[in-house]
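User: Good morning. I'm curious how BES would be positioned relative to this chain. Could you predict the structure with it bound?
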Amino acid sequence: MQAWNDYISQNKQRFLDELLDLLRIPSVSADSKYKGDVARCAEAVKESLLAAGCDKAEICPTEGHPIVYGEKMVDPSAPTVLVYGHYDVQPADPLELWHSGPFEPVIKDEKIYARGACDDKGQMYMHVKAFEVMNKTNTLACNVKFMIEGEEEVGSANLGKFLESNVEKLKADIVLVSDTSMISMEHPSLETGLRGLAYMEVEVVGPNRDLHSGVYGGAVANPINILAKMIASLHDENNHITIPGFYDKVQDLTEAERAALNKAPFDLEEYKKDLQVGAEWGEKGYSTLERTGTRPTLDVNGIWGGYTGEGAKTVLPSKANAKISMRLVPNQSSDEISEMFKKHFESIAPAGVTVTVTAHHGGEPVVTPTDSVAYKAAAEAIKTSFGKEPIPTRGGGSIPIIALFEKVLGLKTVLLGFGLDNDNIHSPNEKYDIFNYFKGIETIPYFHKYYKEMS
Ligand code: BES
Ligand code: MN
Ligand code: MN
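Assistant: Good morning! Here's the predicted structure, ligand included:
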């Protein structure tokens, strides 16, 4: 649409500057040190919603970080789009690996470098600006509600309660989310599924204090040796997970589904080169795309214990710890899998150590329909702005709240993500291409237009 393109090009620099301002606020939800910054970021998001044209916008306090809600109702008979995103970000460490400050955004080679540039401030803010574009050009087709949370990166613990107590306020026809990735700008795609998550922490305790590894070594169980062995036993030689019952509810894809999935453009050589790994790795019998999109996994996220300082210290440590997460696929349940893990991990503990397993947050897997009006509107929007039909893919990441949109609000979700797998989300030097940012702003209004027309 000409009016949209004109408005975007006239305001291009401001759209970019505003995002950079948002990226300067270190809204790290996991670290209480940033509580004030998270609150400040919520305030900035609220102000941006009002400035873009929301009739009302408010900060909704929770027991954790606040949720920002805003809306503009244009026509009670028009469909309502509930835009979900998150303004919180992951911790920036390790800081020494960043080429510039994580909260001092810089533009290099047409890319914005900052924590949150892609996940999810950059992608969330595309919706605020697309809404401004539609509002200022008097072309808002649908009613729009925004729900932007500050706890996605820590499991959205308080958002579920917010949904339950605000069913009426959040009444809508579809949830629209940009917090996932595309294959590439040459091969636009739409994610049609997300994996669930079960996140555990384990502790192995041996002797009541650190010991001299010469005086006691060989005669007392070393918790780190034991933990390493226990973790290693969680996969067999085919990289299948060995927890009894783990795969019981996993549905195998049909051959046709597998073939469709594997048709997506994917260059294994490029993939290995990008990551500088000599070989791919994973569950026997599955392709890389199947492994990340359709299979459950188990990964150690962190492991610690004993002496890790400079030089060498001969010590037999008293305890060892690890954080272990499992990605889940339909119909696995986060609670059930957490329970299975706990039982199994405790059962394989040898005499001489005590093992404790605790569960952190989790989330359920989701599959989104590809035969819905909303999916078709998203596909058509992409086709209009990219000139190409999007390829449906299955994403490997998790967004815990999406399953609850369906369960609590009865709403399906469209995952209209514009990130790229190599955007370094959760990693040093996170980036978001300026091109993707504006492609999102250009595409979103078409979604609203087509969604109304097709509804
Ligand atoms: N936006 C990501 C999830 C994502 C990334 C989905 C890329 C698809 C493609 C989200 O912010 C995220 O990081 N989720 C966490 C889960 C959460 C409970 C910490 C994840 O997937 O680890
Ligand atoms: Mn995200
Ligand atoms: Mn994230």
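The two ends are 20 Å apart (CA to CA). Residues 196-250+296-363 form a domain with the Alpha-Beta Plaits fold (CATH 3.30.70.360).
Let me know if you'd like a different ligand tried.
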